[in-house]
Write a structure and sequence with these properties.
Low-confidence stretches: none
Shape: globular
Number of helices: 10
Strand order of the largest sheet: 1-3-2-4-5-6-7
CATH architecture: 3-Layer(aba) Sandwich
CATH superfamily: Alpha/Beta hydrolase fold, catalytic domain
Radius of gyration: 17 Å
Helix content: 25-40%
Order of helices and strands: EEHEHEHEHHHHEHEHH
Mean pLDDT: 93
Number of domains: 1
Distance between the termini: 35 Å
CATH class: Alpha Beta
Number of strands: 7
Structural class: alpha/beta
Strand content: 5-15%
């Protein structure tokens, strides 16, 4: 049997929403959001290859963003959704944006939050200082906790989110994370195709992450229909401001889905 991404369906009051976390994270990314989201939708948390409860496939091809699109479609069909709303956070945003580009008829709306990797320049995956630092730690075999983006470095997460993220992060395998960088991150950016999006799109911007603000300006310049909600917080804005984040998602979700 081919490997499958792990997903959990959380019973809620409306149509399904796909929730996809970022690099070194897990379904725990959404713990502070779930109860609020369930009031108007059915959250479906999905975990990246090699993260949380998802296995690491042997095939490099399975790690490509286009192969993720196939996995998302398999999940949508399995839960019986004709269409759904999708949300991507950080690294995951590059994958959900790719999904919206490749399968717009399956998606009636989407949101994404702080993600430079989703819209970086073609050489950005290898040449930014942050990318170099991450690659150096992973390839040297040093502990994952030395990575600048490891959850242990987070400062503003709710305790329940932090504890669950650290528990899941403790199970991450360095070689699997190297493969995520080499086989997924290298093809992650949708910068060149971003203006071709036809799915209604919301960007929730954690404005304290200064390095992300030029990316917001780029996104606005390329997609006239893009809606932006700015919140006081940083990279993990969904967990730092769960109520405000949920409200932004609900407003956009309802505007896209009508009576759902």
């Amino acid at each position: 049997m081919s490997p499958r991404l792990h997903f959990d369906v959380h019973d809620g009051a409306g149509a399904p929403i796909l929730l996809l976390h970022g690099f070194l994270s897990s379904r725990a990314q959404w713990l502070a959001n779930l109860e609020g989201l369930k009031e108007f939708c059915t959250p479906v948390t999905v975990e990246l290859w090699g993260h949380g409860r998802s296995p690491m496939p042997e095939s490099a091809a399975a790690m490509h963003p286009l192969a993720y699109v196939e996995q998302f479609e398999n999940i949508r069909n399995e839960i019986g959704a004709n269409r759904w709303y999708i949300v991507g956070q950080s690294f995951g945003a590059g994958l959900t944006l790719r999904y919206a580009l490749e399968a717009p008829d399956a998606i009636y709306g989407q949101a994404f939050c702080n993600s430079n990797s989703a819209l970086e320049t073609p050489d950005g995956a290898n040449k930014t200082e942050r990318a170099k630092e991450i690659s150096e730690v992973l390839l040297s075999g040093r502990p994952l906790t030395e990575l600048p983006i490891h959850p242990v470095k987070a400062k503003r997460l709710p305790q329940q989110v932090m504890e669950a993220l650290l528990e899941d992060a403790g199970k991450l395998q360095p070689d699997a994370m190297v493969r995520c960088l080499q086989q997924t991150r290298a093809h992650l950016s949708v910068r060149e195709e971003f203006s071709a999006l036809t799915v209604p799109t919301l960007l929730i911007n954690g404005v304290w992450e200064k390095s992300f603000q030029p990316t917001v300006e780029f996104a606005l310049s390329k997609l006239a229909s893009l809606e932006v909600v700015e919140l006081q917080g940083g990279h993990a804005i969904n967990a730092e401001q769960p109520q405000a984040f949920n409200t932004a998602i609900e407003t956009h979700y309802l505007s896209c889905s009508g009576s759902h």
